[in-house]
Amino acid sequence: MTQEEARWSKILCTVAESSSADMSLFLCFSVGAVAVYLIVYYGVFRGSRCLSPTQLSGKTAIVTGGNTGIGKATALGLARRGARVILACRNREKAEAAAFDIRRESGNNQVLFIQLDLASVESIHTFADTFLKSEPRLDILINNAGVMGCGRTVDGFDLTLGVNHLGHFLLTNLLLDRLHQCSPSRVVTVSGLLHRFGTVDFSSLTARRDVVCSHSTWSMIQAYCNSKLFNVLFTRELSNRLDGSSVTCYCLHPGVIYTQLCRSMSWWQLLLLWPIAKLLFLDPESGCQTTLHCALQEGLEPLSGRYFSNCHQQQVGAKGRDDALAKKLWEVSERLVGLNYCAPSAPKSGLMSSDPLRK
Fold it and tell me: Are 155 and 162 in contact (CB under 8 A)?
């Protein structure tokens, strides 16, 4: 071998060794990335499953926002167990299509639609009147519907806070007597992990203006976080007021789910969210499991007012454990929706609001 050939041979060997090292590094990085993805997805994002064997023949349930996402999946889960399911939705065409799908998939023909627009106090009253006149039972109320976006309700409230909190607050109160009559019964409200980043700004509720009128992504997210905190506080105060009765209530984080919740976002925001959603977010069927757990699991009655995630009780943020704040939010909400409801008195039993387990 000549000197020139030896030189080229050495260069080729060096390149080969370098390529081999780069390939090894690439493979290690790929394996590490897959491992991290699996750990995050299965350990953080992927939820547990509802294992309750409870059947619901002869029971009636309402699911708000039951025409899409986890609401539709929740309604399907209840229908498969034999419940009479009322889809409480704004869009008639989509709701009737969803009811048809659920009847076909579950084999249960008792899946109906009653129109409800949670952004309208008048519509909520109309829904409650229609339901109470036509349906003799109410065993499970699922406050599932939610929105994140800018705008105002029919009555001038911020859209996110009006739909996610005030609408469900009024609806629940209008149906409480029927829930008492059919007890034991449950109220399940879909909150979320983002309640930990929420704040209670009563001016955002009382001001008849769009509090996220800037259309900024941060403003929309903050309003959504606030509404989820309101859901936690509402559930806590409702539990305090129902203490001693056979109506219990729960709130929950359903998981990180890819649904139509962000339909009010701009196209570029959705474009940024889409790849993350496809990789990490749950599908609606997985996302409804904690809702079903709270609605169906036997023995949850002593845990009324608590917060659940992955089908287990979880600690809420510090603001969500403030009984005085929860009581004030209830009173402000009553005034805003024109309601003055006092829960029927019942013998005191079970957990009191001062019970340390409530903390």
Answer: yes
